# Entry
Amino acid sequence: MTDYLIRGARVLGGAPTDLGIKDGRIVAVAEVSGSTGGAVETIDATGLIALPGLVDLHTHLREPGREDAETVETGTQAAAMGGFTAVHAMANTDPVADTAGVVEQVWRLGREAGHCDVFPVGAVTVGLGGERLAELGAMADSAARVRVFSDDGKCVSDPVLMRRALEYVKAFDGVIAQHAQEPRLTEEAQMNEGVLSGRLGLRGWPAVAEEAIIARDVLLAAHVGSRLHVCHVSTAGSVEILRWAKALAEKQGGWSVTAEACPHHLLLTDELAATYDPIYKVNPPLRTAADVEAVRAGLADGTIDVVATDHAPHPHEDKDCEWQAAAFGMLGLETALSIVQHTMVDPGLLDWAGVAERMSTVPARIGRLADHGRPIAEGEPANLVLYDAGVTRTVEASELASLSRNTPYAGMELPGRVVATFLRGRPTVLDGKLC
Ligand SMILES: NC(=O)N[C@@H](CC(=O)O)C(=O)O
Ligand SMILES: [Zn+2]
Ligand SMILES: [Zn+2]
# Structure
């Protein structure tokens, strides 16, 4: 195994330093002169920012079942290109990841691909049907060691089932990640409910459909003393409820609520629906500029704990059609860090240490991952990303590693570029290219 000497990297955006990597671990932080013994490759990282390898709590890899949209191989390549060393693979595959057998299969495919670690998310209910609890314990005890459970794509709307799920996962320190969407309030919904949905003639999706479920679920988590995670927070009202809920959890102890925001909800607004271009169709929908501002503020002050991509690949035939018929979802892995720089770092809402917290440390903690989200320090596993924040690039959909092309950022100029990603000391990306 080649050892590496990374010269002049700015760890968390700080002063330039050298990093030694040997046998998959960080062996030195500071001036490493000379050799670490053995074959050493030197990487000039002058001006580059070093962050711990990014961890995504919310990725759709589509395998098994929709290998025409993405596979574990291509999705984890996209992850590595985005600076990720671990992703949580959502359960809405075909078959659904609701048994130990399926989660082990996804986990094994991730190991074989080797571009980034894959941690399968287990379904909460059998077949995402919302009627019977899946075998949560068997998935937790499997080789995949599942800790995050979600029916994402669908809401666990039955409060009795949600309560049982929250109770059940306490036994193995699991967490329920809720796709907060009251189904009766969003039947046939196509975009954010507001002035614009009326004008465009598209069925509206009220903010309250998200907020009502979040409010209900934090009360349930408090009642049973469990861990709740809220997926893709998109409205100002949700941020307010979470702020209140976190204060309550702090005071009471014994339960917790965490939340994620997606890059697209930090940047894009419902105005884009006026194009009727389904590239902007996503669940939850793009909201108003005021919502975007509130989500950014929530992420800045820690009310929203993490950025998660909700990378949702779809083949062109499911997106290149009229709005009503198109699938919900957009790509996210390869542009996430750039969008976070653009929306949070460049405007001064977050520094690079804050980015590392929200895109590595905290998501790893929520997923109970031992070897990810660790500090860049001696003895730690060498999972890290080298990022050039000083360049701009034009996003070209055709150049993405993902098998799908449904990025809303095609043609946009975005800041920053992932130069290298290391997974346990082995580069998965070097010079901006897959290894
Ligand atoms: N986000 C989306 O619009 N779509 C996701 C499902 C989901 O995250 O709810 C998908 O699986 O395509
Ligand atoms: Zn969802
Ligand atoms: Zn999702």
About this structure: The pocket of N-carbamoyl-L-aspartate (ligand 1) is lined by residues 60, 92, 152-153, 179, 282-283, 310, 312, 328-329 (CB under 6 Å). The mean pLDDT is 97. The first strand starts at residue 3 and ends at 11.
